[in-house]
Write a structure and sequence with these properties.
This protein has 169 residues and is mostly helical. It is 60% helix and 5% strand. It contains eleven helices and two strands. InterPro entries: P-loop_NTPase, Sulfotransferase_dom.
């Protein structure tokens, strides 16, 4: 199992745009309205922190590899090598480069109309790390940090996310 994690602040930012892009999901007039709903666990898919907390009990299983979106963005070649090794797949240098190029956000966004139709524009918006800084107020940032610590701060997944998100930023 490949478990891909992402900074909860960027998850919230992405979900905000995703929700507002799909007519069958609740939309929010403002970021503040969405943030309140997100923090009060009123999302159709549940609470991201509870999701992480549940996955944390499997983080040490030998059949689970955990990687962050931030890791993949920072060093996609190493990320693909590690994923391939985990699944026992050997790649030539040419195959490795092909996977890295074809799985880049830019490539997937470019091909999203073919692969996902009109839904592609909603799924592939920016693909940026730290886009949350464009929406979060200082108070919201502090609330999210507090919730992170309360739910998963001392866990294996929490430590991994904290390192990738805060220590490398």
């Amino acid at each position: 199992i490949l478990l891909l994690l992402r900074n909860p602040k960027d998850v919230a930012t992405s979900f905000y745009h995703f929700n507002n892009g799909l007519s069958f999901l609740p939309s929010y007039e403002t970021w503040d309205d969405f943030f309140t709903a997100f923090m009060m666990k009123k999302m159709p898919w549940g609470c991201y922190f509870e999701y992480l907390s549940k996955w944390n009990k499997y983080a040490d299983d030998e059949n689970v590899m955990t990687i962050t979106y931030e890791e993949l963005k920072e060093n996609p070649v190493l990320g693909v090598k590690n994923i391939a090794a985990f699944f026992g797949i050997s790649l030539t240098e040419k195959e490795l480069q092909s996977v890295v190029e074809r799985s880049s956000f830019q490539s997937m966004k470019k091909n999203s109309q073919k692969t996902h139709g009109s839904f592609g524009n909603i799924l592939f918006r920016k693909g940026a790390v730290s886009d949350w800084k464009n929406l979060f107020s200082e108070d919201q940032n502090e609330k999210m940090d507090k919730a992170f610590e309360e739910h998963i701060g001392g866990t294996k997944l929490g430590t991994k996310l904290k390192y990738e998100v805060y220590c490398k930023a």
